[in-house]
């Protein structure tokens, strides 16, 4: 098993309310030349957590940070005008918190970060350290 140190939250950069499934994301990532979906988990608007890449495998979600991280994406991240916006539904937020807790039970005290902490992208369309500061105390 890999030595995990952190969870990195992403968004799918799709409009709020747009339906999207893990098969479509996998297709997008394969078109980019990746072997499979880059995220380990995807959280749908209804709170369902879909499993992507096997957690034992290094992800493909943040350049230079994949070796010790778990990639989690929520479906959404853009408003109807394609402006980066925190579109997480309450069900997605609860699912994310549950997933963080579950991963910590198995792998220890993993820190929580946003993709935008490691790149100039807006993803996940909000500041994770502000919104979820209680997770990294």
Describe the structure.
The chain has one domain (6-136): Peptidoglycan recognition protein-like (Lysozyme-like, 3-Layer(aba) Sandwich). It is α/β, with parallel strands linked by helices and 137 residues long. A hairpin with a 5-residue loop joins strand 3 (41-43) and strand 4. 23% of the residues lie in helices and 19% in strands. Strands 4-3-5-1-7 form a five-stranded mixed beta sheet, covered by helices on one side. Strands 2-6 form a two-stranded parallel sheet. The model has no long low-confidence stretch (mean pLDDT 96). The longest helix has 18 residues, at 90-107. The chain is globular and about 40 Å long. It has helices at residues 22-31, 90-107, 128-131, and strands spanning 6-11, 14-15, 41-43, 49-51, 69-74, 77-78, 111-114. It has three helices and seven strands; from the N terminus they run E-E-H-E-E-E-E-H-E-H.
